[in-house]
Amino acid sequence: MWQQAHDTIVAVATAFGRGARQIIRISGPEAWQAARRVICGECLPVEQPLEPMVFATWLDWEGLPARLPCDVFSWPSGRSYTGQPVVELHTVCCGPLAHEIIARLRLRPARPGEFTLRAFLSGRVDLTQAEAVLGVVEAREARELQTALHQLAGGIGGPLRALREELLDLVADVEAGLDFAEEDLPFLSWEELETRVTAARTALEEINRWFEKRRGNTELPRVVLVGPPNAGKSTLFNALLSTERAIVSPVPGTTRDYLTAVCSHRGVSFELVDTAGLESWSAEVAPSGLDSTKALNALTDDRNSAIAGKIQVATQQAAQMADLRLLCWDATKYSPQTVPVDSDTHNSQTLLVLTKADLLPTGRSSSWPEGALLVSARCNSGLEILKDTIVNRLLAQQETSAGVVAVTAMRCRDALRRAADALHQAQELIHGRESEDLIATALRSALSSIGEITGEVYSEEILSRIFSRFCIGK
Question: 3-state DSSP helix/strand/coil percent for the chain, to nearest 5?
Answer without folding.
Answer: 45, 15, 40
